[in-house]
TrEMBL record:
Record Gene3D superfamilies: MFS general substrate transporter like domains
Source species of the chain: Cladocopium goreaui
Any one Pfam family match given in the protein's UniProt record, by short name: PTR2
Location (main, coarse): membrane
Family to which the UniProt record says this protein belongs: Belongs to the major facilitator superfamily. Proton-dependent oligopeptide transporter (POT/PTR) (TC 2.A.17) family.
PANTHER family: OLIGOPEPTIDE TRANSPORTER-RELATED
Phylogenetic lineage: Eukaryota, Sar, Alveolata, Dinophyceae, Suessiales
Protein name: Protein NRT1/ PTR FAMILY 8.3
């Protein structure tokens, strides 16, 4: 992100040690390289090496992401309790052990017998490690700079830009190089069958290096102690107390929404894992379409989506209820009742009822935006690469892995971020006579996310209608492996996989518009005592709850055979959720305009003009009201 001269990081008046900052950036690069190498190819590994059906493999991949983000909330709470440094060390060690186990489990001769170790290491150890690092490493880096002065805060802004850049460098290495080696090896160096062990082993090496580097520079860090869990505990007490002491139906609905979430997780996990364990580890058979008459549709063993079980329906109902209840209950948080002990703590940093209302009032925005956006975003993790694998992925005598095309998302972020910040947003601001608000960026991001999935659906219809690539070179290395007459693989279609860059790039543009705005919203709308917790909740809904929904939708709509199924239905459901999210956003902001909450702080959800008048003390004091 570019900065003007007045906004540049100027260290003349204070001293910043650049070494610990550089170390943290390197640690983040290594961690993200490891994560995306695994997450980007995990679905293909489940599908081709562990012989899961494509729909179950996609669901397992979504469950992995779901659990990684689930652990962000315990990771944030642990950091608040014992400090960020200790939490990062503990989580990084668990992460490294998980990657070592994964690296061992994918050695070619062990793949079948150690499939359980691969699954357990991903869903338990790596998920816990990621959840402990992700909500804390960026904040720990900002701690090295401090925020006592305006210059330090400007340097923190520069750090976050460099931090995001380090993430995308790791993404480019993962998707541009390591993911391709999983299915193709390195000709003359790494045999194809050992591609996964090389790629995942490299990821393990990077994670071990990250932990060693982080520990090795311990003496150079500024380490802030943990503040304890008092504010988080009081927030829970306020919520529970209000249910039984006059909080009304909104308080009961809030409690019901929070209770539905763990049930949603349990049913989703049970549905996915039971389906995976029930599948037989046998090779699927199909009739080679190139050997069949061109006028006949190629008969295949697998058709349609992966499951219509009752557990999927129950999970979808529980998740929908949880989100609807949380949105409706927290549009107006005046139901939060005082505990009656605030006077005893008036001279301390005790968490009061106004701060509790303020914290809970961020939930509608967090739920609406993250669920509607992330369902479209999650297509990038499994559906886009799988679609690419059954297009023409050849380049000369080599083939790209479908996950390779994720590099277009990272490149879009790197290229368009400075364009938006230095050109597009200033021009729009000048034309409209006011700054581009967070809400405007978010709505625009949801529109672009919707278009990305619609374009993928259109591209899928074109792919399915395209002719097959016949001959021995026409089999895809990363598509589902079926066998017939000694040949193994799935036929690619005669349409270039580089067309998949279009939906990938659109997702990258939508990320620029949505994710930074949500980070900013959560930071500015939360009381200082629970900013880490609210940010962790944002990550929880963004990555965990959304992936739980994606796992369920994958079971219901993701076709095991793309050539006879309808993957476009999966995309269109995601696109419709983005449209629903836009409508829900405006509905929430309209409802919030009449609420009597957040009296001590600007209501971040409100649109132009709502912050005028008597509802905000900041407005009364003559301070500028920030509009979303």
């Amino acid at each position: 992100m570019a900065h003007s001269e007045s906004e540049a990081c100027d260290t003349k008046n204070f001293k910043i040690s650049k070494l610990p900052v550089a170390v943290i950036l390197l640690v983040e690069l290594c961690e993200r390289l490891t994560y995306y190498t695994l997450a980007g190819t995990q679905k293909i590994y489940f599908q081709n090496q562990l012989l899961k059906t494509p729909s179950t493999a996609a669901a397992l991949n979504s469950v992995f992401s779901m659990l990684c983000y689930f652990w962000c909330v315990p990771g944030g709470l642990l950091a608040d309790s014992i400090g960020r440094y200790k939490t990062i060390i503990a989580a990084g060690s668990v992460y490294a052990i998980g990657t070592i186990c994964v690296g061992i489990s994918v050695i070619y001769q062990f793949q079948e017998s150690l499939g359980w170790l691969f699954t357990a290491s991903c869903l338990v150890l790596i998920a816990m490690g990621t959840g402990g690092i992700k909500p804390n490493i960026a904040t720990f880096g900002a701690d090295q700079i401090g925020d006592a002065t305006e210059k330090q805060r400007q340097c923190q802004t520069t750090f976050f830009s460099l931090f995001y850049l380090s993430i995308n460098i790791g993404v480019l290495i993962a998707f541009g190089f390591l993911t391709n080696t999983t299915t193709g090896g390195l000709p003359g160096v790494i045999p194809q069958e050992e591609g996964y062990s090389f790629a995942y082993g490299s990821g393990a090496g990077c994670m071990i290096l990250a932990v060693l580097i982080f520990v090795g520079f311990t003496g150079s860090y500024t380490m802030l102690p943990g503040n304890g869990l008092g504010p988080a505990r009081r927030l829970i007490r306020y919520q529970y107390y209000s249910v039984w002491n006059g909080g009304g139906w909104r308080a009961a609905m809030s409690l019901a929404g929070f209770l539905c979430l763990p049930l949603f997780y349990i049913v989703t996990l049970a549905d996915t894992l039971l389906s995976a364990s029930a599948e037989k580890s046998s090779t699927k058979v199909f009739t080679d379409p190139c050997a069949a008459p061109l006028t006949e549709a190629p008969p295949r063993m697998l058709h349609g989506a992966g499951g219509e079980g009752v557990l999927s329906d129950i999970a979808l109902a529980l998740g929908s209820m949880a989100c609807i209840f949380l949105i409706v209950a927290h549009v107006n948080c005046s139901w939060v009742r005082s505990l009656g002990d605030e006077s005893q703590h008036q001279h301390s940093r005790s968490f009061n009822v106004k701060e509790a209302q303020q914290s809970l009032s961020a939930l509608p925005m967090i739920v609406v935006v993250n669920i509607s956006f992330s369902l479209c975003y999650n297509s990038m993790n499994n559906a886009f690469p799988s679609q690419a694998c059954q297009m023409d992925v050849r380049l000369g005598s080599s083939q790209f892995n479908g996950a390779f095309y994720n590099i277009s998302d990272a490149l879009a972020i790197v290229i368009f971020t400075p364009i938006f910040e230095t050109c597009l947003f200033p021009v729009i601001s000048k034309l409209k006579g006011s700054p581009v608000r967070l809400g405007q960026k978010i709505v625009a991001g949801l529109v672009v996310a919707c278009i990305s999935n619609v374009s993928a659906a259109w591209l899928e219809s074109k792919r399915r209608d395209a002719p097959y690539l016949c001959g021995d070179a026409g089999f895809s290395q990363c598509a589902p492996h079926y066998t017939q007459d000694g040949l193994e693989g799935t036929r690619m279609k005669d349409i270039s996989a580089f067309w998949i860059f279009i939906p990938f790039i659109l997702v990258g543009i939508s990320e620029i518009l949505v994710n930074p705005c949500m980070y900013c919203f959560c930071y500015e709308s939360a009381p200082a005592q629970v900013r880490s917790l609210v940010q962790a909740i944002n990550l929880f809904f963004s990555g965990s709850v959304s992936n739980a929904f994606t796992a369920v939708v994958s079971k219901l709509l993701y076709p095991n055979d793309l050539d006879s199924g309808h993957l476009e239905n999966y995309y269109l459901v995601n696109a419709s959720m983005a449209v629903a999210g836009i409508l829900a956003y405006f509905a929430v902001t309209r409802c919030r305009s009449g609420s009597e909450i957040n009296e001590g702080r600007v209501n971040e959800l409100e649109l132009d003009g709502i912050c005028e008048g008597e509802k905000s003390e900041e407005c009364k004091d003559g301070k500028e009201c920030r509009k979303v």
